Amino acid sequence: MAFSDIPLEQKQAALHDLKEIKALFAARSWFPGTSGNLSVRVGEFSPEQFYFAVTASGKDKSVHTPEDYLFVDQDGAPSEATGLKPSAETLIHCEIYRKTGCGAIFHVHTIDNNLISDWYGEQGYVPAQGIELIKAFNIWDEDAAIRIPVLPNYADIPRIAELVPDALDPAVPGVLLRNHGIYAWGKNAFEAKKHLEAFEFIFEYSYRRLLLNAASTK
């Protein structure tokens, strides 16, 4: 399917979802500076061809303008004429879409996800067990345990993107960049938001538990 064949209402719905999510996360201070990026896929999907709306590079996500987003293809190239540049980490979105076929990807920088990803960075994953919010990932086992992948935060984005396909766990809809932030995804914007909120709860819980454990050994 060519980008021009995608119905206009689908494109408008994606932009509407992005605007609402951006406002919500900005109110939570999840976009310090101009950090973070959001995307929602539109149209039919195949690993060889797909399109998505993504936040433009360098924008203040606490305000809304007509130039906050653009549409790109499976290689991260703009799908229509525009003077906007896609977010610097769009290639990572491309690889997650290609691997998972998901419908939306949200990436934010928080203190908790930075600290916890750095603490477990050498291990390559953040362990989480027995935390109620694991159920948000449709994992219902009693005392369930998951491992949230942590990738190195290279300055060269294509180098990170190359690592993404092999790092993803089908049961865990998220991946961390060490001392950088979380990418969470879902079949649509609602599910991606739910997953992101669950990850952030797990990170805050894990960080506070580390502090309590350290205090108890003094």
UniProtKB/TrEMBL annotation:
GO terms for molecular function: methylthioribulose 1-phosphate dehydratase activity; zinc ion binding. Pathway: Amino-acid biosynthesis; L-methionine biosynthesis via salvage pathway; L-methionine from S-methyl-5-thio-alpha-D-ribose 1-phosphate: step 2/6. GO terms for cellular component: cytoplasm. Residues 16-207 form the Class II aldolase/adducin N-terminal domain. Zn(2+) binds at H107, H109. It is an enzyme of class 4 (lyase). InterPro entries: Aldolase_II/adducin_N, Aldolase_II/adducin_N_sf, MethylthioRu-1-P_deHdtase_MtnB. Its cofactor is Zn(2+). Keywords: Amino-acid biosynthesis, Lyase, Metal-binding, Methionine biosynthesis, Zinc. GO terms for biological process: L-methionine salvage from methylthioadenosine. It catalyses: 5-(methylsulfanyl)-D-ribulose 1-phosphate = 5-methylsulfanyl-2,3-dioxopentyl phosphate + H2O. Its EC number is 4.2.1.109. Binds 1 zinc ion per subunit. Belongs to the aldolase class II family. MtnB subfamily. Catalyzes the dehydration of methylthioribulose-1-phosphate (MTRu-1-P) into 2,3-diketo-5-methylthiopentyl-1-phosphate (DK-MTP-1-P). This is Methylthioribulose-1-phosphate dehydratase. It comes from Paenibacillus glucanolyticus.
